[in-house]
Amino acid sequence: MSYRSLFACLAVVCSFAASLSADDRPNVVLVMADDQGWGDVGYNGHPAIKTPQLDKAAAEGIRFDRFYAAAPVCSPTRCSVLTGRNPNRSAVYAWGWPIRPQEITLAEQLQAAGYATAHFGKWHLGSVRKDSPVNPGQNGFDHWVSAPNFYDNDPILCNQGEAVQYEGESSDVTGALAIDWIRKQAKTDKPFFAVVWFGSPHSPHIADKADRELYQDQPAKFQDYYGEVTGIDRAYGKIRSTLKELGVSDNTILWYCSDNGADKAKGSAGPFREKKGSIYEGGLLVPGILEWPAKFPQPETTAIRATTCDIMPTILAAAGLSPDKDRPLDGVNLLPLLQEKAKMRPQTIAFWQTANNGISTPSDSLMRTLLTKQKAGGDLGADEVSLHAADLPDPAISVETFPGHASLTDGDWKLHRIEGKKGAVRFELYDLSSDPYEKQNVLKQYPDVAKKLEQLLKDWQTSVVNSLNGADY
Description:
11-stranded mixed beta sheet; alpha/beta; hydrolase; signal; disordered N terminus; Arylsulfatase, C-terminal domain; Sulfatase_CS; Alkaline Phosphatase, subunit A
């Protein structure tokens, strides 16, 4: 974090931290799956996948029926959770791109306000090595046991910069690490913030034997995928039950989601159009469950459209804090909507899938190399991409030189701006209230609506590009 960012963060904390006492401030546990689609849970009607713990949470907490990842692939969505901003603002264009050190993360703000903070599991926002300027420790996490990307069973994870080989089913390992830390924090007088990002059910799909055997009646090609989802469900359930056992669940915000829409080959987007990699509904909609019994004691199913960008401003508000007003956010505080103090989302939701390629970050290979080097008494530095994560575009980028597929949702209207490789642009308009699956383009029937949304999208894209070029720092 830059000095300018640090001072802004401290100013926010000093202004608002006094509004809630430490005893009143909620603990926060954010849990995220990797490539789990909207339809990959029992409560959304999957005919085979067993998710009893998620089903129970959805029945007892706030179930979002329209919860969106901020991007149709992993790293960008993870950036949005920590910043409340569209990931293109900080140059996290696609998988493997590192978060900019200049960003003020949710963890940094909670840490400065006196929270204990920790990250467990998949990071995918840059190198997790000791000297990396973008590892979890440099982004506000006191404690971290993290991987550079997705990982499978018996993973090698980076524990505060040290490569450690763990044994067990990947989600069980991740959940157990988080639970051990939560148990320790529950004995203190500090509120805690834990981010638990599972590495499943991302391909190559290698389920624990017992989990796979639950699906012997299903086609062989799906058994490992379904088994990995059940492994996540079990690990999530253990975190949930531990919070209750420790007597801290009432004032803990437990928020579950996935990082993008369904795996293209084996996942389910339910009835929605397309899957991972697309900004049609199926590539963005994911399971979303929020529990905070102290504030929301009754179960609720909501059709409010919410995104992973909303997580940061909502958590800050719950903790009596406020984000830096000098930086444009793409997320909103959801509490007034959930408490029915507001009836309409105060701003639009927009997405932008640019033409930038992802960056390969094979976690097992990277961590195995680091483990071997450290066992021999040496160490390895961060990769060049992570070391240059703070660099700004040169020359500056414009909307015209940044092609891709963008969309904007205002209420129930959704406009797509689709730019081809040769620069040709076409638009599509959908009324999600009557056509949630985006089958009927009504652009010609509602030209005035399309014109209004086109201007809103253009203004938003201009704002994003300004941020990308460094205007916020």
